[in-house]
Structures are given as C-alpha cells and as structure tokens.
Write a structure and sequence with these properties.
The complex is a heterodimer of chains A (451) and B (298). Chain A is α/β, with parallel strands linked by helices. In chain A, 46% of the residues lie in helices and 11% in strands. Chain A folds into two domains: 174 residues, 3-Layer(aba) Sandwich (D-Maltodextrin-Binding Protein, domain 2), CATH 3.40.190.10; 208 residues, Periplasmic binding protein-like II (D-Maltodextrin-Binding Protein, domain 2, 3-Layer(aba) Sandwich). In chain A, strands 6, 7, 8, 9 and 11 form a five-stranded mixed sheet that branches. Chain A has a four-stranded mixed sheet with strand order 2-1-3-10, with helices on both faces. In chain A, helix 2 links the parallel strand 1 and strand 2. Chain A is globular. The mean pLDDT of chain A is 89. With 298 residues, chain B is mainly alpha-helical. Chain B has one domain: MetI-like (MetI-like fold), CATH 1.10.3720.10. In chain B, helix 2 packs across helix 14 and helix 8 runs antiparallel to helix 11. Classes of the chains: A alpha/beta (451), B mainly alpha (298).
C-alpha cells in the first residue's frame, strides 16, 4: 500500500470504530409519578443507598451539609448516604458525563441555567418533583418567585414555568453593600430612593472616596450592576421575560436605553473604581473590605467575607426604589437546587432526603452555620448588624415576590454576550444603542429558534 | 521454497513480522490518540449538546467557524500570540544564548537555571502572578508611578489596546528560558575551530554570529519554533485565568472557545469542529517550519 492509501484505510477504520452517533444511549423521558404512588415514610423504604453529588465544600456550606447529613443518617439508619462533594466548577464540568451514564447519582445539585438544568431536562435526565412538592408542602413554604428558578417545561425549552425539577437550600440577592463609617464621615444616611443613591455617589466622589467599587476583569460582575440599575428603570415582568429568554419582549426600549445611559454616566463621572475593567472580582471586593469604596453593588454571598473585614461598619440594603415606598425589586435567585435523576432507583428516598435538608429545622441549621436560608428567612433570629440586614433584605424581597432573574439565564450564550457587551459599554467602545442591539440579536435569535 | 525466499532477501530488509513488533505501541497509540481524534472528527460533524442524541449536520459546524466573525478574530489573536510566544523568545534567546556561550561567564549553570525557571512553574501559577502584576493597583503600575510615569498606568488586562500584548508578554517571559537553553545546548556543540577560522578570516563578533553560530543551530531553532508556536496556538490556561477572553472579545483564543463551547454552552459538535480546525492549523504550521529547516540544511 502507498502511504496515502494506508492513511485512508486507517482513517476509515477509525471511523468504523466510532460509527455510532454521539449520544445514542440517551435515556427516555421519564414521567412524573402520580401523588398516590409517592411514599413519604422514609423509615419504611428498606435498606437504600443514596448517592448525592453536592458542591457544598466551603466553610459554612460544608458545615451545614455535614450537620444535616449526620442528622438524616441518625433519623433514618436504613438509608445510607454516599456523599460526593466537589467544587462548583468541578461539579459543573463532570455532571454532564455522570448524568449520561447508566448509573448516575440519585441526588445532584444542578445549576439552574439553561446550559445545565435546562439541558438535563431536555435530555430527560431529571425527574419532575411536582408530586413530591404537593405531598411535602414545598409550594406552601417556598415563594413562587424562588421556585420558578427550578421550573422548566418538560421539553426543557421554557424556563421559569412548568414542572419543578429541583429545590434549593439557600437564597441570594444582589443589593448594595455600604461602608457605614464612610457614610458617617461624608455626612450621609443610607439612601432611601434611587435619586438619593446617585446624590450619595456624587457626594462620595466630591469627598475623595471611591463611590462604587467594581472589578470587572472576569466579565460577569458588571452584569449584577447592570441588572440592579435596570430594575430601577424597567418593569419587573419585562425583565422576567427577557431574563428567562421568552418571546414577547425587546431590549430596544427607552427604559433599557436609560439604564445603559445611566451606567455610562457613572463611568463619565468617575463613580467606579479606577481601571475597573482590568481589576479582578476578588481583588475588588477585598479592596472594599479594606475601606476602598463607599458602596458596592454585589450579591449576599460576599457577606461572610466582608463582615470579617469590616465588622459592623458593613451595611447591606436592597437597591432603593424610584420612590421610597416603591415595591422592592432586586436581581436574585437561589443556591444550586437539589434534583433527582430520572434513572435513580430510589426517588422516594431521594425526595425524603431533599425534604429533610430543606425543612424548617434545616433552615435553622443553615442560619446557625452562616448561610442565608431560602425559606422562612424573616423568621430566623440573627444578631443585629450586617447579617440581619441581609436576612431582612432577602425576606422582604421574597415576601413581595420581587426577585427578578439573573440576566445571563436568558439564552445559553447570554452570559458571554452580556459580559463582553458590558465591558464594551463601560469602556465606551460601544454606544448604548449598539450595546442594546448586541443583546437584542442574541435574545431574538434564541427566542425565535426556541419556539 | 519459503526458506529460499527468506534467504534471497538481503539482511536488514523490512519483513512483515516487523509489523508485529510495532503492534503493542500502535495499540496504545491508537487507543489514546487515533481513536479520540477520530471520535472528535466524527462529533464535529454532528449538532450535539453532549447529552441527547446528536443530529448529523455534515460540514455545517465548519462552515459556521468560517462565517463566525468572533471565531475568525480568535484565530487572529492566536496568530498575534505567535509573535510573542515564538518570534520574541527566539530573538531574545539567540542573543542571550550567544552572550552566555561566548562570554564563558562564571556561574553559567546558575544563569541557565534562572533563565529556565519560568518553564518549571505551572502556567496557572504564572497566570495568577501576572494578573497581580497587571492589576490597576499592581506591581507594574506601582513601578510606573515610582518612575513618574503616572500617565501610562492603566488596568492593563482591561485595556482594549494592551490586553492582548499584555497576555503575549507573559508568553515571551515564559518561553524565553526554554528557547535559550535549547540554543545554548546547540551552540556548545559548535567546534571551536570554526570560530578560530572565522576570526583568522577577519570576522568580527557580529559576522561570526551570522556566519557560524546561526547556521549551526538551525536544527535547534526549528525545534524551538515548533514547540513555541504550538504553545502559542493552543494557549488556554493563560487566557482563562487572566482575561477570560475580555475585555469585550479582544483576547479570545480558539482553545478557550473549545472549552467554553463544550463545557459552558453544551455545543459539543461546534467545539469539536474548532478543535479539529486548530489541530489542522497547528499541524500545517509545524510541518511548514520543519520543511523549511530541513530544506536549508540540505
């Protein structure tokens, strides 16, 4: 054989070896068990082993998981927990393979977005939990604005409505962190209205402080700032439609333009930290912890670290409304929801486990270990100070169903589109109109192809 | 009959049994290299999310790569990185190696180790360190400030003009040691008589470098270029840690897109197509470098 021929034969051989289409071993779509078939008495389920994949590896997260797992084991000795714990990134990258295998874990923490939970639902790898939600009363205890982050239509196309596929333990909301000591020094009170907030930024600038700390090198942090400003200008239901990537809204509105223009105005007035597009997210909030910055728009997940740095000088509030009595609206969501895999042979035991780690008692454990419980938040007793600020803020906004989705949920590519577009906008490489056109293109393309 | 045929063969001629000896190595090679490559090529012909059944789309993924302005830009950035990863280190390395070799400095081993040190450190660590150097309040800006050059300070990795060169400079810093040590090894093999002869003919240091040193290390240059060009084209960790392709898309590179599409977006078919394209580009360029080096030797 001549060398080219040999190569051709080899290539053909390799193709024969690999000829079955990728993904041809995908499982069939499961059906939700009717409520009557659901068994809730975990002690009567016999000897069962549950494999649980979670990402609760850090500090208080790890502590609450261990405490709750131990309590579960003590209460139901017949159910053996096989816990596999990985960091968020590791879990995200390995879950795909694990779920497409023949023996996936029983319970997994699956990220809410379309490229994780949505893709798993579409592939029929997760079990709808509505039957369990009914018998365990989850729908009563969890506000709908929280539950909808784990809802998908059965074909995975619609996000934010349809079947329930997971239940989270903790909540999170993006708001305004502020440095109390700096406010006092500048003669300011925490702002009551959005106009107050802008005035405070101007005062801080004039006082030689960094008005608004931001580090946007990682691309996504400005998404939270944009979302916060947007929810002052754009009605919440429109943000919901845009954020869940549904048909029927548009980015090209005067309100969205006003949002983009306000942000650019802040750049022009020098409200953001110097060189923010070249500063990492972590160094930025660490700088805020060291007293650089009067305000910072960020999520409640920074509470523990910032409290360590600033103590009671730290304050947190929901982004103030246009008027002092406007209903609260804030970008927010939940920790990763716990879901049950379609192939799990023990869905009843799995549901009992999820119910246990999200029960009213579990919420108390979450509070005690420094987490922000997603349900019954307002009823927890915590020490006065920043932690109480955070609990009050989350309790208030969920009670009024005022959470709006993270904008990067919208389409599988939207985190990148929006992240890069915001860097362009804030560096003034793109005008507000060009910026919105970029977003509109991604959103429209997806919403139309998604049917 | 058989015996006579075997006997008729001159000793040392290839025999069929030789393939048997190749088999174990080939089996390993096939299982861990050829099969995955074949599979990647196959997946690149499907629209596949990594979970459900893939849909055959033929060459659509490749057509999309050519049509995608962002991806074309990503390949362009990779080419810019070649200048920083390969050309820069080669020029610096040639100079350094010539000096180190020529001057017969005391403590050569020490300097060689220092120059080579970046290679020993994992790229992720290198990237984290440089991210700090380039930060708005980082070492570089502090240094510029101390020199009274405050007007030049900026968030380097967030600057549309300087982000890509900033990433490239890290590559130059990283690869220079490897290239220098490779060239140094090559230069130490050059017989002293050649230099003597050159000097008798009245050549100065510069002439000597171009007439004797440079042609003698052509092989090493080819190796160095191959290694560094491949490193430039497949840069992933550096971009992943420092900029994530930003600001905007000004530092996006193909390997980052492969990772991002496969694991982030679930577009496994498209990711495989980019991977295959990148492999072909790398293969063509390294093949070209080696052909070039061979021809000049011959």
């Amino acid at each position: 054989m001549t060398p080219p021929m040999r190569l051709a034969v080899l290539a053909a051989g390799v193709l024969v070896l690999t000829s079955c289409a990728p993904g041809s071993s995908a499982p069939p779509t499961p059906t939700s068990a009717p409520p009557s078939a659901v068994r809730t008495d975990a002690a009567a389920l016999g000897n069962v082993t549950l494999t649980v994949w979670d990402q609760e590896v850090r500090g208080g997260q790890a502590a609450q998981m261990k405490q709750l797992n131990d309590a579960f084991q003590a209460k139901y000795p017949n159910i053996k927990l096989n816990r596999v714990s990985r960091s968020f990134d590791d879990l995200n990258t390995t879950l795909r393979l694990a779920l497409s295998g023949n023996e996936p874990p029983d319970v997994v923490e699956a990220n809410n977005g379309r490229s994780s939970m949505g893709a798993f639902v579409k592939a029929g790898q997760l079990r709808p939990l509505d039957a369990y939600a009914d018998v365990y009363g989850w729908k009563r205890r969890y506000p709908e604005s929280v539950l909808r982050y784990s809802r998908y239509s059965a074909d995975g196309k619609l996000f934010g409505e349809g079947n329930l596929y997971g239940l989270p333990q903790v909540g999170e909301v993006v708001g305004v962190f502020y440095n109390r000591a700096k406010l006092t020094k500048l003669g300011l009170q925490p702002p009551k209205t959005w106009a107050d907030f802008e005035t405070s930024l101007a005062t801080a600038k004039a006082g030689g402080e960094v008005p608004l700390q931001l580090g946007n090198l990682d691309k996504w942090p400005a998404i939270h700032v944009f979302g916060t400003v947007q929810s002052r200008h754009v009605p919440p239901d429109q943000i919901g439609t845009l954020g869940f990537g549904r048909k029927g809204a548009t980015w090209n509105t005067p309100e969205n333009t006003a949002t983009a223009e306000q942000l650019v105005g802040w750049v022009d007035k020098g409200y953001f930290a110097k060189g923010f597009n070249g500063q990492g997210y972590d160094p930025a909030w660490q700088a805020f912890g060291k007293g650089q910055g009067v305000f910072m728009i960020a999520g409640t997940w920074l509470l523990a670290d910032l409290q360590k740095a600033l103590g009671d000088d730290l304050g947190f509030m929901l982004p103030p409304g246009v008027t002092a009595d406007a209903p609260p609206v804030a970008t927010g969501g939940t920790g990763l929801p716990f879901a049950i895999t379609a192939k799990s042979p023990n869905p009843d035991a799995a549901a009992a486990y999820i119910n246990f780690i999200t029960s009213a008692d579990a919420m108390k454990v979450l509070t005690a270990t420094g987490n922000l419980p997603v349900a019954e938040t307002g009823q927890q007793s915590v020490a006065k100070g920043p932690q109480q600020d955070v609990f009050t803020a989350f309790g208030t906004v969920t009670a009024k169903n005022g959470l709006v989705p993270y904008l990067d949920y919208a389409t599988p590519t939207f985190a990148d589109t929006l992240g890069a577009a915001l860097q362009d906008l804030l560096a003034e490489k793109a005008t507000p109109q060009e910026f919105l056109a970029t977003l509109e293109k991604d959103y429209k393309t997806f919403a139309e192809s998604n049917g | 009959m058989t015996q006579r045929m075997t006997a008729a063969r001159p000793p040392g001629e290839p025999r069929r049994v030789a393939y048997l000896y190749l088999l174990p190595a080939f089996a390993v090679y096939a299982a861990f290299l050829l099969y995955p490559i074949g599979r990647a090529v196959q997946i690149s012909l499907y629209d596949w999310d990594g979970l459900s059944l893939g849909r055959w789309v033929g060459l659509d993924n490749y057509a999309a790569i050519v049509a995608d302005e962002g991806l074309r830009a990503a390949f362009g950035h990779a080419l810019v990185l070649i200048v920083f990863f390969a050309v820069g280190p080669l020029v610096i390395g040639l100079g350094l190696a010539a000096i180190l070799n020529h001057a017969k400095v005391r403590g050569l081993g020490f300097f060689r180790t220092v120059v080579f040190l970046p290679q020993v450190v994992a790229m992720v660590v290198v990237a984290v360190a440089w991210r700090r150097v380039y930060a708005p309040d980082g070492t570089l800006n502090t240094l510029l400030g101390a020199l009274g050059l405050d007007s030049l300070t900026r968030g380097w990795l967030g600057d549309y003009t300087f982000a890509l060169p900033a990433v490239g400079v890290v590559g130059t810093w990283f690869e220079t040691g490897l290239v220098t040590v490779l060239l140094l090894a090559g230069m130490s093999r050059i017989p002293g008589e050649l230099y003597e002869a050159a000097r008798l003919d009245g050549a100065g240091a510069v002439r000597e470098f171009f007439a004797v040193t440079l042609p003698s290390v052509r092989g090493e240059i080819a190796v160095a270029l191959t290694l560094t060009v491949i490193a430039a084209l497949r840069t992933f960790d550096l971009v992943y840690i420092t900029t994530r392709g930003g600001p905007g898309d000004s530092t996006s590179v193909p390997s980052y897109e492969v990772y991002h599409r496969a694991f982030g977006l679930g577009q496994v078919g498209s990711a495989a197509a980019i991977g295959v394209t990148l492999t072909v580009v790398i293969f063509v360029i390294s093949f070209g470098i080696n052909r070039f080096a061979d021809r000049r030797i011959a």
